[in-house]
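TICKET: design request
STATUS: open
ATTACHED STRUCTURE:
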């Protein structure tokens, strides 16, 4: 078992937070002391991503301690940080990660947006992932267009020295011939296994291949 995994996606609103919550919940139900951390969070909503994950997983802890940067504008972290004059520093992310990691045996770290999400002018999401030393799981939609977006995301990650541990298809309908074909083609074209499919409204996820 590694000490954690980084959850990224093919884009915004694909379901990273939903999937992260299911993973943390499932692992904890298996008796694994799994926690959650989000380096940057944009959008002034309740519950925010961190609050949602912790509540879903049954973790009664202060969500403010498990996110490094929170911004009110629902924008890319780099732009939100400029607007609020709160520069994102890799050093703080690493410090928080090391602190939180000591509380748990396994840690789910959730990114923002897609794989190329900028955190600062000279700090992209892949820089954060590599600094944390984590493999990634890519959350992708099961719908039309996912072959292109998933293949591009996988290739970008590989070209930047990031190991892709697996792909999770969200809102998957096994009876839909197009979605079944999407799953097959994504695996064929990327060489990466779809380790889980999640149906709309699922409250659990099969996590054996995540650890």
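STATUS: resolved
RESOLUTION: sequence designed for all positions
ATTACHED SEQUENCE:
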């Amino acid at each position: 078992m590694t000490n954690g995994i980084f959850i990224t996606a093919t884009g915004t609103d694909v379901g990273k937070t939903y999937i992260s919550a299911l993973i943390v919940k499932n692992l904890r139900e298996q008796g694994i002391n799994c926690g959650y951390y989000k380096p940057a969070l944009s959008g002034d909503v309740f519950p925010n991503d961190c609050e949602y994950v912790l509540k879903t997983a049954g973790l009664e802890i202060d969500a403010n301690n498990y996110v490094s940067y929170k911004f009110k504008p629902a924008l890319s972290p780099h732009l939100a940080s400029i607007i609020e004059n709160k520069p994102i520093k890799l050093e703080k992310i690493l410090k928080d990660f090391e602190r939180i990691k000591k509380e748990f045996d396994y840690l789910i770290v959730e990114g923002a947006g897609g794989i190329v999400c900028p955190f600062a002018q000279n700090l992209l999401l892949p820089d954060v992932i590599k600094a944390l030393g984590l493999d990634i799981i890519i959350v992708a939609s099961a719908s039309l267009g996912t072959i292109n977006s998933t293949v591009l995301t996988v290739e970008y990650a590989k070209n930047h020295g990031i190991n892709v541990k697996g792909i999770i298809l969200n809102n998957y309908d096994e009876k839909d011939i197009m979605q079944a074909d999407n799953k097959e083609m994504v695996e064929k074209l990327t060489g990466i296994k779809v380790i889980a499919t999640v149906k709309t409204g699922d409250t659990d996820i099969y996590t054996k291949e995540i650890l």
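CLOSING REMARK: Strands lie at 4-9, 34-42, 67-71, 106-110, 118-120, 123-124, 136-141, 164-170, 194-198. The chain is about 35% helix and 25% strand.
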